[in-house]
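HUMAN: Forgive my ignorance: could you write out one protein's sequence and backbone structure tokens?

ASSISTANT:
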Amino acid sequence: MKKNRTKNLQTTQKANGSGKPWLILLWLLLPATALFVLELFIRDPFLAEQYARRVFPVVTYLPRSLMNFLPFSLAEVFVVVGVPALVLGAVFVIVRLIAKPGRAAFLLRLGKVALVLVSLAIPIFYLNFGYTYHRLPLADNLELETRDRAKDDLHATTLWVAEEVNQLAAAMPRDESGLFEPSLTTQEILSLADDAYKARSEAGGNQFLTDHFHHGAVLTKPVSLSRFWSYTGITGIYVPFLVESSVNIDTRPDEMMFTALHEVAHSYGIAREDEANFLAFYCGILHEDPEMRYASWLMGFTHLNNALYGASAELHAEIYASLDPLAKADLAARNDYWTKFEGPVQEVSSSVNNSYLIANKQEDGVKSYGRVVDLIIAYYAEQGGLD
């Protein structure tokens, strides 16, 4: 009889999870280690750079290669299936807590599941992306000098990009309304985006470009429900847990092309938004396809001319007036598209994205997207365009 009571006590302890507290400590060790390494990288960007160059490509190679075999966005599947599943799961938990005894044991089991998921999610996020927020600035790796620039430098750079846009605008395929309509299919656009990075790597210029820049094929994925996604104002997303980049394919074609180029940068370990924008421009203008080049120059012009408006409305108007009417029509179409989706959903989405960026030490939040202008000016200066 005494034996049976002892056995029952052990069974109860096991059911309550109190028999092996070291398992909880073991699970907690995973995120604790990940956060310890994060602190090291924050303190020493050189260490983070070594991780981004030598470890990140290895860690992400297999999952990225597997994702390349899927022609659809797995992230979209998880959202479509996962959101209803979460709602049903929440209903089940509430019903279970109300209708059945043993609430404490049930909540304990639920807590264990949550602990395991969080303990895995934190290191996966940092290994597959988060650590690269703290690498050396891209300008240092590309040997570009970013500094405070005179208004004349911004004006000269904007004029240069406008001239490149004008050279390509008339040669682009267009629909009956005169708007840019690529000859490439959506799938071709998404699968060819990484070619721009290969072209820039082969062009060389320094060791970073030749040895640590291009990490192999990246297939950016189309989101089938892009029309609804546009209400969030999001054009693309990189999901570290899947090592997958997905693109909003309902936007204007030039923006979709640029977004695909931007998401490839994230797949290669360039986490900061301004740097990913710059690389989309920097690599896109070397793409062998003229349509991809046009999209890259046009988005570069958008960033520069918006900045120029803040410095001089007069110079902004002067350069915009010199832009090819066809390019102006493409810019207007892009603006018209987004006007239709303005509203509270987009505001909430922007707020969430802003919080995410700040949590990853991007103190400017969504404003960090605008720093691409400094990099484009620095690149133009390196090319000998500025005195």
About this structure: Residues 33 and 360 are 17 Å apart (CA to CA). Confidence is low (pLDDT under 50) at residues 1-18, 365-369. The chain has two domains: 2-133, 139-382.
